[in-house]
Write a structure and sequence with these properties.
The structure holds three protein chains of three kinds.
Chain A lengths: L25 H15 L5 E5 L14 E4 L5 H11 L4 E7 H7 L1 H9 L5 E6 L2 E2 L5 E2 L18 H4 L5 H8 L5 E6 L3 H16 L5 E6 L3 H4 L3 H15 L3 E4 L12
Parallel strand pairs in A: 1-2, 1-3, 3-4, 4-8, 7-8
Antiparallel strand pairs in A: 5-6, 7-9
Chain B lengths: L8 E7 H11 L4 E4 L6 H10 L6 E4 L3 H13 L4 E5 L1 H17 L4 E6 L15 H6 L8 E4 L3 H18 L3 E6 H5 L1 E7 L29 E2 L6 H22 L2 E4 L6 E4 L4 H14 L4 E6 L1 E3 L3 H10 L2 E6 L4 H9 L6 E6 L7 H12 L1
Parallel strand pairs in B: 2-3, 2-4, 4-5, 5-7, 6-7, 11-12, 11-14, 14-15
Antiparallel strand pairs in B: 1-8, 6-13, 10-12
Chain C lengths: L1 E5 L5 H14 L4 E6 L12 H6 L2 E4 L29 E6 L2 H6 L14 E6 L9 H10 L5 E4 L9 H18 L3 E7 H7 L9 E4 L9
Parallel strand pairs in C: 1-4, 1-5, 2-3, 2-4, 5-6, 6-7, 7-8
Classes of the chains: A alpha/beta, B alpha/beta, C alpha/beta.
InterPro entries (chain A): 2-oxoacid:Fd_oxidoreductase, THDP-binding, TPP_enzyme_TPP-bd
GO molecular function (chain A): oxidoreductase activity, acting on the aldehyde or oxo group of donors, iron-sulfur protein as acceptor; thiamine pyrophosphate binding
Organism (chain A): Desulfotomaculum copahuensis
Chain lengths: ~250, ~350, ~220
């Protein structure tokens, strides 16, 4: 007899166990998202769009209408959908390559236009599905398949500060936060607020999530958590960066 | 808010871009997504002026990738959505259109061809035939109407929405810079008053009910695990496409029965070809006129019949053989000889076609 | 000094060219100024030399002087900014629509010159100006307008009846707007049938079509 782990109601049971690697952060992010969908009661009008890269494996993850798009193009697909039917709750789910590299113009412009959608970007510091190449979020000195001697910021720049950028180009009404899989309750709270912000029609909502890719990092459990909890936060500060109606913006944007 | 953009019928004088905007309104298009590029800009200018009066929407995107993908999003939400582009914008548009092919999304795209390759000219060409019929990484699972007059721009823009929603392949109206900017008169009309049924749009995502409770979730993907899986999906698509092809293929022809030479052209060049063939016939030349209206799918049966009984085709186009390449494939094995009259990025006049035919006839 | 403004493809340039030629034929010194910075085709550039040979000073680019026309933007020719200071009559052909009408502000002296008349060209076959209320709403959007021109036509299909219908509607709009109708413009052949005045009493200016030669 096996014990069923607690799963959000909005998860699609017949596609579980999910398709991600053991230790992958996606399952945790999608759990937080599932709980947020459940708590807000929006399973009937949420539309989930996933990018290409490992995020594409989530195309049948929920009992939610879902669309798998192209690499970097989830933001415009969900934008177009939301513009055409504002009653839907549009969720654009992507990785750091999709959001900060190939689709960065879409993220920037959707944010600047204050599109009423929720973008969730999973930051695992490299390209997982294509085999562990450097991403815009790769840490200085981090070894990847295209930085075999470690990322040299002189040649390839520093990690992209995504939420800080989004906060800088959005106005009052947008919600911007950076969560982590190391604090699932907090992450669920951020995602829930990001969805609530869309439901209220305030503006663009963006949550970056610090996540783990033990497969491409080639890390054991201890090293994985060390990366997520100690190394990544050196460059990526966890917290809310912009909250509508707060009367003040977060310290990061201060 | 006004109910119908066009009551009954009206004879008007317009530019081609403006015609497209009116036709989209008449076809009950609900939302346009677009990015500026000459020579299609006035489609957006007129749409944005008129759309709010009829409860229609517009979004100016950050580029043509976004214009194409937002249009796909609009269709997924169950709205009649369209975009318009040209040249380098059409190049970017091919990525979203490959997704539309993969997911059978009834996206409508109006293309006003300009010179190429690259930025080239904003003026005119027929150099986007290969890209519009076969662009993207895929198999050309799309419909392309090539128009020649403002009346056709109006008629086929309306038809494009019906074709797209009936067969669920992305559908293009292929115009050009001349048609975009030219002014001529035409009759605009309410299609329903003429008995044309406008097919309703239907949502792919966000239908009533809770997924997994009241109904299965609607989930669409474009990535497959194994070759066989993709192969099987594509076989279904090809079958649908082949079944559709003879139902939608259109052409225009005259004086081909006894012709030794048939001038084949498409789009705005066919106006010159038509004039030339009439003039040459009057002068006693055994010459005919054939014009595919659908470039994809081509009217293959008619072309093969023609290629079987005609000695020569003169292919006149403002490109370096892009139409000819399609014709050669369609008429493969037919005894007809194909002669080129290629003027890439440059217009072709009646006089030039007449002179070329006389030169061939000796 | 006259400035021709109006809806896209209403016939501004055609009317302006014909007006310039009409004045030149009277032996007057005429400057014809291309101020269309919106539309890269159907402008005066291609017939610049021909008009010059007919005795008109044409202030316009040469097409080959322009680079990436319509792509790099339509650059305002610096000399045109000072057009109102030129000796002789000045006919301004101004780019289309409401944004086009604002182009007038780019000219030195446009706000203060007491001799400048701004004429809006109306064709009732253009759906945006297809009815009485549409014309009134449209002209009100244009900003300063000193008079209307009835240029109603259907290209090659134009009939006397259509021109007269245009005259009636445009004149009714002008009354509502408290503006004069400067003229009904009509192709020379039809103008002979109509006579010196249209059915409502507006002067008829016979015109010849030059613009089909100007397509790029």
């Amino acid at each position: 007899m096996s014990v069923q782990p607690a799963m959000p109601k909005s998860w699609r049971m017949d596609t579980k166990p999910h398709k991600f690697c053991p230790g992958c952060g996606h399952g945790l992010v999608l759990k937080a998202l599932g709980m947020a969908i459940d708590e807000l009661g929006i399973q009937d009008r949420a539309v989930f769009g996933c990018d290409i890269g490992c995020s594409l494996l989530s195309w049948d993850f929920f009992n939610v209408d879902s669309i798998q798009t192209h690499h970097g193009r989830t933001t415009p697909v969900i934008t177009g959908l939301k513009r055409a039917n504002p009653n839907l709750i549009g969720i654009a789910y992507m990785g750091d390559g999709g959001g900060y590299a190939i689709g960065s113009q879409h993220l920037v412009n959707a944010a600047a236009r204050n599109e009423r959608i929720t973008a969730i970007l999973v930051n695992n510091t490299q390209y997982g599905m294509t085999g562990g190449q450097m991403a815009p979020t790769t840490l200085p000195g981090q070894k990847t398949e295209t930085t075999p001697y470690g990322r040299d910021p002189e040649k390839t720049g520093y990690p992209v500060q995504g939420p800080e950028m989004v906060a800088a180009i959005t106005r009052e009404g947008s919600y911007v936060a950076r969560g982590t899989i190391a604090n699932l309750n907090q992450l669920k709270g951020y995602i829930k607020k990001a969805l609530q912000n869309q439901i209220e029609g305030n503006g663009f909502s963006f949550v970056e999530v610090l996540s783990a890719c033990p497969t491409n990092w080639r890390t054991n459990a201890e090293e994985t958590w060390n990366m997520v909890e100690k190394e990544m936060p050196k460059f990526f500060k966890v917290g809310e960066i912009k909250v509508p109606g707060a009367g003040k913006e977060g310290q990061e944007n201060g | 808010m006004a109910d119908k953009p066009i009551e009954g019928e009206k004879r008007v004088f317009m530019t081609g871009n403006e015609v497209v905007a009116w036709a989209a309104l008449a076809a009950k298009a609900e939302i346009m997504y677009g990015y500026p590029i000459t020579p299609q800009n006035e489609i957006m200018h007129y749409w944005t002026r008129m759309a709010p009066k009829f409860g229609r929407e517009f979004l100016q995107t950050e580029d043509e990738l976004s214009a194409g993908f937002t249009t796909a999003g609009g269709v997924l939400a169950g709205r009649k959505a369209f975009t318009a582009t040209a040249g380098p914008g059409n190049t970017l548009m091919q990525e979203p259109m490959s997704m539309a092919e993969a997911m059978r999304l009834p996206v409508v795209v109006v293309v006003q061809q300009r010179g190429g390759p690259s930025t080239a000219t904003v003026i005119y060409s027929q150099q986007e035939v290969t890209m519009t019929t076969m662009g993207g990484n895929g198999e050309g699972l799309r419909v392309v109407y090539s128009t020649a007059t403002h009346q056709e721009l109006f008629d086929y823009t309306i038809k494009a929405f019906n074709t797209a929603w009936k067969y669920r392949f992305p559908t293009f109206v292929l115009g050009d810079g001349y048609q975009a900017k030219m002014r001529e008169s035409l009759t605009i009309y309410d299609p329903e008053a003429r008995g044309v049924t406008l097919l309703p749009a239907e949502a792919y995502l966000g239908k009533p009910g809770t997924p997994g409770v009241d109904r299965p979730p609607a989930q669409y993907r474009n990535t497959y695990n194994v070759e066989e899986e993709l192969y099987e999906v594509l076989q279904g698509y090809f079958k649908d496409y082949e079944k559709m092809a003879p139902e939608i293929a259109e052409f225009d022809a005259f004086d081909t029965e006894d012709a030794d030479l048939v001038v084949i052209s498409h789009g705005v060049v066919s106006r010159a070809a038509k004039g030339a063939v009439k003039e040459l016939r009057a002068a006693g030349y055994k010459v005919g006129y054939f014009r595919p209206i659908t470039l994809r799918p081509l009217p293959v049966k008619e072309l093969r019949a023609l290629g079987g009984r005609t000695k020569q085709f003169l292919v006149a186009e403002s490109a370096n053989g892009q139409l000819a390449r399609l014709l050669k494939e369609a008429a493969y094995g037919c005894p007809v000889e194909m002669l080129p009259m290629y003027k890439p990025g440059v217009g072709i006049t009646t006089e030039e076609v007449v002179a070329r035919v006389k030169e061939i006839a000796g | 000094m006259e400035a021709y403004i109006g809806e896209y493809a209403s016939g501004k340039s055609e009317v302006a060219v014909n007006r310039a030629l009409q004045l030149a034929r009277l032996g007057r010194r005429v400057n014809l100024v291309d101020l269309d910075i919106v539309e890269p085709c159907y402008t005066l550039r291609p017939i610049k030399r021909k008009l010059r040979d007919l005795g008109i000073d044409v202030l316009a680019w040469e097409t080959r002087e322009t680079m990436g026309l319509g792509e790099a933007g339509n650059i305002l020719r610096p000399g045109n900014r000072w057009a109102l200071r030129r000796p002789g009559d000045v006919i301004l052909d101004i780019g289309y629509g409401v944004e086009g009408a604002k182009t007038l502000h780019l000219l030195e002296g446009a706000e203060t010159d007491p001799d400048l008349k701004v004429l809006a060209v109306i064709n009732i076959a253009r759906p945006v100006t297809g009815s009485l209320p549409d014309i009134i709403a449209y002209v009100r959007e244009l900003g300063r307008v000193d008079g209307l021109i009835n240029n109603s036509h259907l290209g090659d299909e134009t009939t006397v009846e259509f021109v007269q219908e245009g005259a009636a509607v445009v004149t009714a709009a002008a009354r509502e707007l408290n503006l004069p109708v400067a003229a009904t413009t009509v192709l020379a052949g039809l103008a002979r049938e109509i006579g010196p005045q249209d059915a409502v009493g507006n002067p008829v200016w016979p015109i010849t079509r030059y613009m089909p030669e100007t397509f790029w």
